[in-house]
Write a structure and sequence with these properties.
Blueprint lengths: L1 H5 L4 H29 L2 E3 L2 E4 L2 E2 H28 L1 E7 L5 E8 L13 E6 L10 E7 L4 E8 L2 E4 L2 E3 L2 E6 L10 E3 L2 H5 L2
Parallel strand pairs: 5-12, 6-11
Antiparallel strand pairs: 1-2, 2-3, 4-5, 4-9, 6-12, 7-8, 8-11, 9-10
């Protein structure tokens, strides 16, 4: 059910969704069992009543709008806070692919030679793309080294197109929650 609803983006994302589903089911089932033990007068199968009012149905009717309101409010604040975007990358061979991404204000990586900004992408997503590799030096909190990068024809976010970017390849678990691409902070100025 969770895979059908949220998709199978990566293992951690799927495990989180299944965990939330089971936790919510357990809490709701326990609460309904508590209502059954303390407030029911009659009990027929899954339905228990108190003075001819069905308690589970009454609980669901009252709590459902509240739960939906909290859920949509949280989703709206998460979308504003984490800055998720759809990015379309046009590769040098003319092929286009769309990736889910988020804006990382800490990613300010720029190639010192070409002065092009670097967007980091999951290397597994572009394995079949023909590319010429360049190495760009990077420094993070605890690491430094050379990142494999390659040129693209253009990137497009929200209908705005730029040719001033390189694609850096991430081979670790840098990306999570179903995100394939980490945008450079300069995208905020140019494309968003």
């Amino acid at each position: 059910m969770c895979v059908i609803s949220f998709g199978l983006k990566d293992k951690l994302y799927t495990i989180q969704n299944i965990s939330y589903f089971y936790m919510t089911s357990t809490v709701l089932g326990g609460f309904l069992y508590f209502l059954n033990l303390n407030f029911s007068e009659t009990h027929e199968g899954m339905v228990f009543t108190y003075q001819t009012i069905s308690i589970p149905y009454l609980f669901v009717v009252i709590s459902s709008p509240i739960m939906l309101y909290v859920y949509f409010r949280q989703r709206k604040s998460e979308a504003n806070y984490q800055h998720y975007y759809k990015v379309t990358i046009t590769f040098l061979n003319g092929e286009k692919q769309t990736f889910s991404s988020y804006l990382d204000t800490g990613n300010k990586l720029v190639d010192p030679i070409t002065k092009k900004k670097v967007i980091v992408i999951d290397a597994r997503k572009v394995e079949d793309i023909e590319k010429q590799i360049y190495y760009v030096p990077y420094h993070s909190l605890n690491h430094h080294g050379l990142m494999e990068c390659f040129k693209v024809n253009s990137i497009s976010i929200n209908g705005k197109v730029s040719k001033n970017y390189l694609i850096g390849l991430s081979k670790g678990d840098l990306l999570r929650d179903g995100v394939d691409c980490v945008l450079n902070s300069y995208c905020l100025e140019e494309l968003l």
